[in-house]
């Protein structure tokens, strides 16, 4: 089932998230499948549980267009990151119409749990690294508007939020 995507300045996007416990509950399995449906329908490349109104440590990475099967990560965290950083334009389903240049480590190792609760580690210096960092930021209450130094679209929206003290 496709879920509504929460947009900024909704407070849930800034709230702390709870760890996912295993074995997965029926509700958590359903949330995972619903998030997969939602990210596909939104034509997104990643989605975090707070973006659909759930304060849990769950992200989904969707690179199906690149030939990579869509996959969830539970309780993900960055274990290591490269000193080398790259700046890439990012957007966000929860911050519509805003795009900005965000500098992040080029290579990261992410530790998480898979659907079965097994610990997995992914080391990547491409799109998975980029998306994982963006989505892990979400489960830690951080958004691209906290990181972008220069906006390529929607700067006036961000200025308005600052005036209203949302940021």
Shape: globular
Work out the number of β strands: 8
The percent range for strand residues is 25-35%
Percentage of residues assigned to helices? 25-40%
Q: Taking Cα atoms only, what radius of gyration do you get, to the nearest Å? A: 15 Å
Spans where pLDDT lies below 50 across 5 or more residues: none
Architecture, according to CATH?
Answer: Alpha-Beta Complex
Main β-sheet: number of strands, strand sense, barrel status? 5 strands, antiparallel
Can you identify the CATH superfamily?
Answer: Peptide deformylase
What is the average per-residue confidence, as pLDDT, rounded to a whole number? 97
Run of helices and strands: HEEEEEEEHHEH
Structural class comes to: alpha+beta
Structure description:
It is globular, with a radius of gyration of 15 Å. It has 167 residues and is an alpha+beta fold. Strands 1-2-3-6-7 form a five-stranded antiparallel beta sheet. It has a three-stranded antiparallel beta sheet with strand order 4-5-8. The protein contains four helices and eight strands. The protein has a single domain, classed as Peptide deformylase (Peptide Deformylase), CATH 3.90.45. A hairpin with an 8-residue loop joins strand 4 (85-90) and strand 5 (99-105). The chain has helices at 26-41, 127-139, 144-147, 155-163; strands spanning 46-48, 58-61, 71-81, 85-90, 99-105, 108-113, 119-124, 150-153.
């Amino acid at each position: 089932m496709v879920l509504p995507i929460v947009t900024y300045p909704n407070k849930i996007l800034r709230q702390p998230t709870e760890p996912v416990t295993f074995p997965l509950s029926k509700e958590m399995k359903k949330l995972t499948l619903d998030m997969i449906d939602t990210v596909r329908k939104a034509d997104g490349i990643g989605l975090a549980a707070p973006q659909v109104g759930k304060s849990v440590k769950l992200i989904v990475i969707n690179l199906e267009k690149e030939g990579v099967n869509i996959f969830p990560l539970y309780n993900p965290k960055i274990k290591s990151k490269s000193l080398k950083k790259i700046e890439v334009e990012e957007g966000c389903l929860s911050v519509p119409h805003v795009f900005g240049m965000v500098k992040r480590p080029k290579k990261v190792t992410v530790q998480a749990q898979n659907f079965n609760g097994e610990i997995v580690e992914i080391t990547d210096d491409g799109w998975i690294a980029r998306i994982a960092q963006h989505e892990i930021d979400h489960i830690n209450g951080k958004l691209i508007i906290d990181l972008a130094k220069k906006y390529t679209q929607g700067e006036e929206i961000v200025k308005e939020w600052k005036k209203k003290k949302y940021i």
